[in-house]
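Follow-up to my post from last week.
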Amino acid sequence: MVSYVVRRLLAALPVILLILVVSFLVLHLAPGDPVTFYIQGGTGTTEEFVAAIRESLGLDKPLGVQLALFLGNAVRGNLGYSFYYHDSVAHVIGARMGVTSLLVFLAVVLASGGGIVLGVLAGTHPYSTIDRVNTFVAVVGYSIPVFWLGQLLVLLFAIRLKLLPTGGIPISALGQGGVGNWARSLVLPVLAVGLMQLALIARITRANMLEILGADYITAARAKGLKESVVIFKHALRNAILPVVTVINLGLGSLLTGAMVTETVFSWPGLGRMMLDSLLRRDYPVLMGLLIVMSVGVVILNLVTDILYVYLDPRIVYR
Amino acid sequence: MHKVRTFIACFVLVMLCIGAGSVVAVSEPVTLVVGLASDPRSLGPTATDNDACPSYRVYSALTQADEEFGPAPDLAQSWEVSADALTITFHLNPNARFQDGSPVTAEDVKFSVVEVTAKLVSVANRGLIPSIGSVETPDEHTVIFHMKQPYPEAMNPYYGFGPRCSYIVKKADWEGTDYLANPGNLKPMGSGPYRFVEWVKGSHIILERWEDYWGEKPAIQRMVFRIISDPTAMALAFENGEVDWIPYTLVATEVERLNSLPGKEAALHGVPCGDSIGARFNLRKDLFKSVDVRRAFAYAINRERIPGLVYSGGAVAAPGQINDTPFMHAWYDPNVAQVGYDPSMAAAILDRAGYPVGSDGWRFHITLKHSTNFPEDLHVAELVKADLAQVKIDAQIITLDYAAWVDQTFVNWNFDVNLSSVCSGPVPTAMGRFTTSNILPIAFANDTGWSNFEYDELHNRQMRELDVGVRWAYLSRMQQILVEQQPIVFLVHRRAASAWNSGKFSAPDSFWKGGLGYFLTRETEVKPVK
Amino acid sequence: MTRVRGLRALRRRNAPGFEFWRRFRKNRGAVAGLLFLLLIAILALLADIVAPNDPMTPGVGDRLEAPGSAFPMGTDNLGRDILSGVVHGARVSLVIGITAASISALIGTLMGAASGYFGGAVDEILMRVCELFQSMPRFLFALVIVVFFGNSIWNVVLVLGILSWTRTGRLVRAEFLRLRGSDFVVAAKASGASEWRIIVRHVFPNVVHIIVVTTSLEVGDVILAEAGLSFLGAGDPNLMSWGRMLYTAQRYLRTAWWFSVFPGMAIFLTILALNLFGDGLNDALNPRLRRVAAE
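User reply:
Got it. Predicted complex:
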């Protein structure tokens, strides 16, 4: 098992490296110059001034040298210095990472929890009302665009009903902190991000429950006289959960993009929004830093889910 | 059933928590919440117009603006300008101190203007800095500027020794450092009435009143700048009372609605920069070398409908470079006007100029480039495209992010028509945009490549002319040349929209609209409403 | 003549497609999806005739008019007819969706086939490439490229097509792996048939249904991705697409709900139809296939 983990980690490194190199090339070969944002929008600056800035930022060196410098620094944990924020990239990303992580984490919790509950209920009571609700949520939730959903939620809950804030995070320095306020700010964004995964999980859980409940060992357990709840929770559920892990695994990409779009609609100061802003500003160091963080994150999360898989299903054997 | 009951119980619990969380804390300091559309680049002297609001509270300048946009005392309690305008003497307030307790001296002022401003504030380099010859500091509280040539805008708080071009920093903290990387950009320490508390990027900036401020303390004890990038969310936050003041970045469509709410005010107003949009031609292309073709474009585009459709009245169709808003009124010549909307005339001109409609149904194909920096630019581009299509010109809109746009249009001159914001003010300095010497591969320079020697000479003269009458004549002629030669079709002059929570705070009208309060004067007039 | 008819009926029933259609027909959701898609396709083809106005011409109505008799879906911020915009948007979405999905199907099939059939080093390399493409959040990469290299519609199509092949690729590979060792392939090899002939005549026909299903699901993903890109402002401004309408509608949420609701509905219903249809196809083709990791 340990050797498997180590091997997977080692195999992931060249992938990450390749992603970075390709991204670096794309970013730098595209038209546009980050210096324009570094200096004040450039109204009336002299050419010499611009050239001096370019030199101090190392942008005048050949591409290969820049890449080598960047990779060398990245390995040592130095992700560079942001042109726009005048702060180290690691610092800038670190400051916003918590917010996005919170959003994504809660979305996963909502999706898994809600999805499993709904799926189990539907699977154990097929063709009932709850089953119809499940199918409805599953199909609708998967098809609705995240950004439109966000807008609709804002329209309904923040504007019409005035129950929840329109966006932003609570500012603790203003005494706005506290679980209650955070909960209020989190409800809509988490819902928007998590609904799609919830739909998927609900549907798959239901399908699996149906199939498993028809299996022999379940019939045997029932024949033995075990209580229904024990049958469901001890025997059926464990097997039904497995695919959920896979779904989360595969859905990480769309969770991230969903987070990015949602952060736009709800004005959340997270990594997703920062990615978009840095794109527009050509803030290369921040962009590269974000790509690193995301690739590494995805790889690690993939590994974690793979391990979970093995833990949950001893039948699976890894070479 | 078990499960359902537990579920309901949990749901109720969650709802209670949400309700409990909305209890507001008691005894808050008087806080003004300002809505900003994006993070400032920095909080130091590099902050530009768009970024200046927070940093201007922390730093002082030599002068600030009064209600008529003339100079009022800030760090300098009095000043004299010699008759020939070549010597300007400032007497600093002897009580002025930095927030760390050290006194503000003439050396700090000299260093800030000659070194920091000159290196970091590009707009200062258009007129002020090149006019400064030498600076004398005969004693701790006196600064004398010896000018190389008379600079008529020297005491203008916008383009002269005001908040934009003379943020005073502590020399000891900045001398010898890399100005762009100086920690003072992130954690500013100045001599203004507010101290910096914290900056959470993408979320907020907090400033607190400095209780030992040497000047008149404002009534607002705390200022919070909330960063809300989505304009809809910003308007909503204002409506819900989460934001008290939106300077500039309110969407024009919300003005009427917000203004009608009790305790809220919103208005459209002019801006010092006199933002206008124009379609700029690339005169390096053969097509646009002919004045006739450029004139045809001017006839083809219906400028009058743009303010209504795109800005909901938040703009005015442009007669030329200068229009009749309060900021430019002094220099406006009503006899200067571009041609009106006449598509049949446009078609006739193009036919005679040798561009008949081709077999594919179009006369020629061009690209229309604009940047995402101003969302309305896209809609203006769409209207222009439709107008041009009517006279059978095929214009493809190419939307570029700001950096790519600057790169393609201003640096590499790779464009046909550049739909760009033209900062048409403050005049008269901004007239220099179209001079030959401004044909440079940098942002917002003369990208058209148009060169007119009469225009150049007129600009040289007006930049040194102290006689207002003579200056006016020069400017009138310059405006006329621009409209005759048409290197650019002026489309509209934008107005900005701001909103104020009048139920909670009172402030003079001129404070919260029009840029005065944003970066030219401070909150001394703003009081909480009892 | 009853006997002839009986024979014909028998032949019909034994034809390969019949079972498939019977199963498909039973799935009401899938049928509804198919019908809706046909409607969208008709709208797309006949957009110029069906739409009452030119969607790009500003000022046909007042600015932000509420839905009424003149404009059933209201007008947008430049006075353009939203109904016409939605109708023409169908064309844009379908063109983008189908083109990009086709590109991805092509790439995915080629990669998957090569990987699954030849195995060994080829498989290893291609699988690493596949992982590379999978690890990159597709949407973000598309955004980067479109923002940097221009937002013309062909850039969008190309980028989305090139980045979406991994799902098809993996499934095709799995099928090829499975079939590689099957009896009829071994037999064909033994009888001296060339590699190419084996792939085309024996293996490929069994893989087609997988490609069709994943491609139809892929179309939905692409349409969603394009809408997302347009929503963030990276779409092509020379066209009227649903996503772009939502982008502009953002700031008019309060004053003009119709500007957001109708185009959003259009996207939602189209994706819904595609999903239902794709699932129906999947079910009908592989009634026993567990829908576990097929997403």
